[in-house]
Specification:
Elements lengths: L1 H29 L8 H28 L5 H26 L14 H22 L4
């Protein structure tokens, strides 16, 4: 059953990427003129969407490849990407839209973003180690 749960998260994450990407491209872009969103915040929001999509696709790839190479490192990579999405992209979504909600206190999430980035890097290193271990490189 774990297999199905992973697919469910990948599907939800992919749908969230598309929805938030549309929100950023249309609704948030329209807020630039009001000053509620800066160009840097809009770019940060876009970065969060892109990284979420990249890592959602990587998680999908792990689910597919994992059937051929049974490796604990794939499980680690999957969960590192999952938590990377939550911490990196999640914190950026809140940081970049905090002015819309008059929630300046959300700046406290700033240090969480790089932790998510480190989790992404660790996930990719797990991916590389699977390749080395199975002599794919």
């Amino acid at each position: 059953m774990v297999f199905n749960k992973k697919f469910i998260f990948v599907g939800i994450s992919g749908a969230t990427c598309v929805s938030l990407g549309a929100l950023g491209a249309h609704a948030l872009k329209n807020k630039l003129s009001s000053g509620l969103i800066t160009i840097d915040q809009l770019n940060g929001f876009d970065t969060a969407v892109k990284y979420q999509m990249y890592h959602t696709l990587a998680m999908f790839l792990i689910i597919i490849i994992q059937t051929k190479f049974e490796a604990k490192l794939f499980k680690w990579a999957y969960f590192l990407f999952l938590w990377g999405i939550i911490l990196f992209s999640g914190s950026l979504y809140f940081l970049c839209t905090r002015n819309l909600f008059n929630a300046d206190w959300l700046k406290v999430l700033g240090p969480i973003t790089p932790i998510g980035g480190v989790l992404f890097v660790a996930g990719w290193l797990c991916f590389a180690f699977v390749g080395l271990k199975n002599k794919l490189i």
